[in-house]
Amino acid sequence: MRTFSTIVLCIALTAVAAEGFAEVKTREFQYQAGDVPLQGFIAWDDAVTGKRPGVLVVHEWWGHNEHARNSARKLAQAGYVGFALDMFGKGKVTTHPADAQGFMAEAAKDPAALTARFDAALALLKQDPNVDPSRIAAIGYCFGGGVALAMARAGEDLDAVVTFHGALATTNPAKKGQVKPRILVLTGGADPMTPSSVVDQFKKEMKNAGVKYEVVVYPGAKHSFTNPAADQAGLEALAYNADADRKSWAKAMEFLKKTL
Fold this sequence. Notes:
Layout: E1 16-17, E2 24-33, E3 36-45, E4 52-58, H1 66-77, E5 81-84, H2 97-108, H3 111-127, E6 131-141, H4 143-153, E7 160-164, E8 182-188, H5 196-209, E9 213-218, H6 242-259
Parallel strand pairs: 4-5, 4-6, 6-7, 7-8, 8-9
Antiparallel strand pairs: 1-2, 2-3, 3-5
């Protein structure tokens, strides 16, 4: 059984309406896993009555940034409670690839700590008064996609996992009967970080483990195709692709509706 240290929420936080989303409300807060302070952001549609599915959003290697928070808002618009979690630690956000690489390497060096940070957010999401704790999903981008898949491989209690240009390779392949969620992988056909050979190996892994999964490839799309700021990073492998962004989100919403 995984354990994590007491989760501490900051008090005296006020819910505010998200700009540009008339009925979507958001709340920012601090929580903890062990002694590490983490940044949380939750979004929900206040016009929706009753409990609804909750969806964790795991950020890219840049950290808990506006891209992840926007996904939480969009999930709220679609009728879910979206929770943009933090895998690095409060304030560890960057736009510089070298810093991002450092944050990611630091977080990934201790799998137990990575799991504890995911579990801390998962516990909070399940406790939210607007969430039906029996219907939980996780979506992840790039590094976050790899995290979401790692949690699925480890047997986390999730109903669905969606990855957008996520890391698919692993040194701990899924074991038969251990993966609980259905999995949807949305990847770019021109992504040098996740070439076709890696995609094929992932498919083989999922098939061998008996996982219900689907892979959708967007021709010509590079890594980070959902992030409008991707082109600003100065890396050849990264590029925003508006068409793939739109189509992948629609596919993800279709998948979550069917699954949750």
